[in-house]
Each structure stands twice: as structure tokens, then as C-alpha cells.
């Protein structure tokens, strides 16, 4: 009897890998829905937006000549424009390049019938698969233009870099990002309005 008890206590406890993975997934899901995660995300988004506005505003002020008194030397102004442009490029790379895995995932789900439910879970602003595909492709284009922008900024210096090429990538990147964001906003508002109308009709029928 003692030997059996000794063997049971001495035997190592092996956790089920599936159970461990499920527990970790549940913990992450709980954290991602917590107030701490929500407020942290909001703070990071605000800091990100403030950096874009701040560095972009500085470039604008230099270009329009508002900083000529503090930077009378033209070479100094060019260097600061380059510094600001590189910082802005890095900030745009956070979304344009950093989100590529998720954008490619959505593109795969958009043309896989088995994964339509996953696609709609990540794009709940509309039930139209056509509009979701348009948004997904627009984000893919945004990533491609940002890659082109990054290649221009990091492979050439400010003296050899064609300004027209940079301008094209900046314009296309901004247009695609703004278009996708605007479409999502309009579709979300339309979806919310439709849901509210349906709810009002149900309440009228019930009464």
C-alpha cells in the first residue's frame, strides 16, 4: 500500500498541452476585454496621433517659412525636414507595415467560404462581403504604398531621393488609409442606424 502511494505522489504531473493553451487563450481574451487594456489602447492611440500631428506640424511650419527665424540657415531647415520625415515614415510604418499579418489574414478569409464568420467577426461594421473585400484590398494597397515609401526613405538620402516619388507614395498611402477608414465609419453608422430602426419597430409591435 505504501509503495503504491509513494509511486502516485512521486509520479510527475503532466499538464495537457491543449488545456494549457486554452487557459492561456482565455486569460488573453479576458485581458483584452478588461478596462486596463481598453484604457492602455486609448492612451497609446492618443500618443500615436499626437506624434503624427506634432512632427507633421513641424514639417508644415518649416515648409511655409514659419520657422525661418529660429532656423535661418537653409541647410538646417533641410536637415530638420529630413528628421521629421523619417520619424513620420516610421510612425506610418507601425500601421502600414506592422499590420500586414492581420491584413493578409483578412484577405485570405475574404475568399475562403469556411472563414466568412471569422472575417465578419473582425469586420462587424457591415454584413456586405463586397464592402468588406473593398476595405481589405484598400488596406493591402495602403501597406504596399507604405513599403514603397519606406524603401525610398531608407535606401536614399535627402540629396538623391526624388521628391516626386516620395510625394506619390505619400499621397497614395494617405488616400488609401483615409478611404478605408471613411468607408468603415460610414458603414458602421449605417449599420447602427439600421439596427436602431429595427429595434424601434420591434418595440412598436410589442406595444
Which helices and strands occur, and which strands form pairs?
Blueprint: H1 2-10, H2 17-32, H3 35-63, H4 74-96, H5 100-110, H6 116-122, H7 129-155, H8 163-206
Keywords for this entry:
elongated; mainly alpha; 80% helix; single chain; 0% strand; 207 residues
How is this structure best summarized?
The chain is mainly alpha-helical and 207 residues long. The protein is built from eight helices and no strands.
- Principal-axes shape call: elongated
Broad structural category: mainly alpha
Proportion of beta-strand residues: under 5%
Terminal CA distance: 72 Å
- Describe the biggest sheet? none
Q: Calculate the mean pLDDT score and round it.
A: 84
Q: How many beta-strand elements?
A: 0
N-to-C series of helices and strands? HHHHHHHH
How many separate helices? 8
Radius of gyration: 26 Å
How many domains is the backbone divided into?
2
Helical content class: over 70%
Low-confidence stretches: none
Structure description:
This protein has helices spanning 2-10, 17-32, 35-63, 74-96, 100-110, 116-122, 129-155, 163-206. It contains 8 helices and no strands. 80% of the residues lie in helices and 0% in strands. The protein has 2 domains: 25-96; 99-207. The longest helix is centred in the C-terminal third of the chain and has 44 residues, at 163-206. The mean pLDDT is 84. It has 207 residues and is mainly α.
Amino acid at each position: 500500500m505504501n509503495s503504491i502511494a509513494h509511486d502516485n505522489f512521486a509520479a510527475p504531473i503532466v499538464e495537457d498541452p491543449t488545456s494549457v493553451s486554452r487557459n492561456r487563450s482565455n486569460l488573453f481574451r479576458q485581458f483584452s476585454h478588461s478596462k486596463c487594456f481598453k484604457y492602455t489602447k486609448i492612451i497609446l492611440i492618443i500618443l500615436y496621433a499626437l506624434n503624427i500631428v506634432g512632427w507633421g506640424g513641424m514639417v508644415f511650419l518649416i515648409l511655409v517659412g514659419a520657422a525661418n527665424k529660429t532656423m535661418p540657415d537653409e541647410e538646417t531647415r533641410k536637415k530638420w525636414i529630413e528628421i521629421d520625415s523619417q520619424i513620420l515614415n516610421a510612425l506610418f510604418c507601425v500601421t502600414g507595415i506592422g499590420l500586414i499579418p492581420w491584413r493578409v489574414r483578412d484577405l485570405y478569409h475574404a475568399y475562403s467560404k469556411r472563414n466568412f464568420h471569422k472575417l465578419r467577426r473582425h469586420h462587424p461594421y457591415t454584413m456586405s462581403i463586397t464592402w468588406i473585400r473593398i476595405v481589405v484590398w484598400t488596406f493591402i494597397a495602403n501597406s504596399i504604398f507604405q513599403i514603397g515609401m519606406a524603401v525610398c526613405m531608407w535606401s536614399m538620402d535627402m540629396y538623391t531621393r526624388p521628391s516626386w516619388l516620395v510625394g506619390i507614395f505619400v499621397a497614395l498611402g494617405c488616400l488609401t488609409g483615409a478611404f478605408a477608414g471613411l468607408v468603415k465609419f460610414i458603414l458602421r453608422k449605417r449599420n447602427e442606424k439600421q439596427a436602431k430602426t429595427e429595434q424601434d419597430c420591434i418595440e412598436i409591435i410589442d406595444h
